[in-house]
């Protein structure tokens, strides 16, 4: 073993180091540009399939299976740009933006974010304004963000109230939050087609359920007709929440392992 390692080190040159660095850079760039999108799950599935294929091919002598894999590689190379077309386009757009790799986001306070959402949601409910607010978590929502109007603004009560004001141009659609920033407004979300949903549920509620069926996002809905507040998570909808119940539920769902969750102040009932 040591002799093999010594032989490898003896043949290791600066060009070898550069070669390894470039390969690592390619993989880093690949994961960097697909982060925040649903393509991460697809890419993970492709990697698992490739690894299983390599293991099976190396352990068992399967002539027909190996022939199928070898002849499928050209088709796979053609299919990859088609499958990842949105991510490739977004990657080129990021490269064209100045300071893309130098930008950093400050860590957000989960407690402050939730308290701001609770205050704004209560105000929207009292004023009879409909609203749909989506909190991004582990699963990226970039595909939905691209359907709306990019804002990249710091979260605040007044901004949320302005967006969902009835005469606002952005009040239709969803607002998507990433940490303590409003990334986009007027975003289009998939409507849930699950059976057994209450027929009284409107488009906002079905969109809230729909976006949480395929992601781990949290969606907060304010009914324009009744002013009632609801929260969707994991494809399920919790309705008729007051301010205190909304606060406790968001703290439990959004940051379950955080110390802020245990010590978070609870909103008082009105």
Which short descriptors sum up this protein?
270 residues, alpha+beta, YojJ-like (1
Walkthrough of the structure:
The chain is an alpha+beta fold and 270 residues long. It folds into 2 domains: 95 residues, no CATH class; 154 residues, DNA integrity scanning protein, DisA, N-terminal domain (YojJ-like (1, 3-Layer(aba) Sandwich), CATH 3.40.1700. Helix content is 52%, strand content 14%. It has 11 helices and 7 strands. It has a 7-stranded mixed β-sheet with strand order 2-4-3-1-5-6-7, with helices on both faces. Strand 5 and strand 6 form a beta hairpin. Helix 6 crosses helix 8 and helix 6 runs antiparallel to helix 10. The longest helix has 21 residues. The relative contact order is 0.11.
Gist of the model:
This protein is 52% helix and 14% strand.
The span between the termini is 72 Å
Quaternary structure annotation: single chain
Tally of helical segments: 11
**CATH homologous superfamily identity of the largest domain:** DNA integrity scanning protein, DisA, N-terminal domain
CATH architecture of the largest domain: 3-Layer(aba) Sandwich
Describe the biggest sheet? Answer: 7 strands, mixed
Kindly state the mean pLDDT as a whole number? 79
> What's the β-strand tally?
7
- H/E series: HHHHHHEHEHEEHEEEHH
């Amino acid at each position: 073993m040591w002799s093999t390692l010594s032989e490898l080190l003896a043949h290791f040159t600066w060009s070898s180091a550069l070669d390894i660095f470039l390969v690592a850079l390619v993989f880093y760039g690949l994961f960097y540009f697909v982060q925040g999108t649903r393509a991460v799950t697809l890419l993970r599935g492709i990697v698992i399939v490739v690894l299983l294929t390599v293991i099976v091919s190396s352990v068992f002598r399967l002539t027909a299976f190996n022939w199928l894999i070898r002849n499928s590689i050209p088709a796979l190379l053609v299919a990859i740009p088609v499958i990842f077309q949105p991510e490739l386009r977004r990657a080129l757009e990021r490269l064209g933006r100045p300071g893309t790799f130098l930008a950093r986001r400050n860590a957000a306070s989960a407690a402050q974010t939730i308290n701001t959402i609770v205050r704004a949601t209560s105000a929207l409910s009292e004023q009879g304004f409909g609203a749909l607010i989506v909190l991004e978590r582990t699963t990226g929502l970039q595909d939905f963000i691209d359907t709306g109007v990019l804002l990249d603004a710091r979260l605040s009560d007044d901004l949320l109230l302005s967006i969902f004001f009835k005469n606002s141009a952005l009040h239709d659609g969803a607002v998507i939050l990433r940490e303590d920033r409003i990334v986009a407004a007027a975003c289009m979300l998939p409507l849930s087609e699950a059976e057994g949903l209450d027929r009284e549920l409107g488009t906002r509620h079905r969109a809230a359920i729909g976006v949480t069926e395929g992601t781990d996002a949290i969606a907060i809905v304010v009914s324009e007709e009744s002013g009632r507040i609801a929260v969707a998570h994991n494809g399920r909808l919790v309705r008729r929440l007051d301010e205190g119940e909304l606060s406790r539920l968001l703290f439990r769902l959004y940051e379950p392992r955080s110390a802020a969750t245990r010590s978070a102040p609870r909103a008082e009932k009105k």
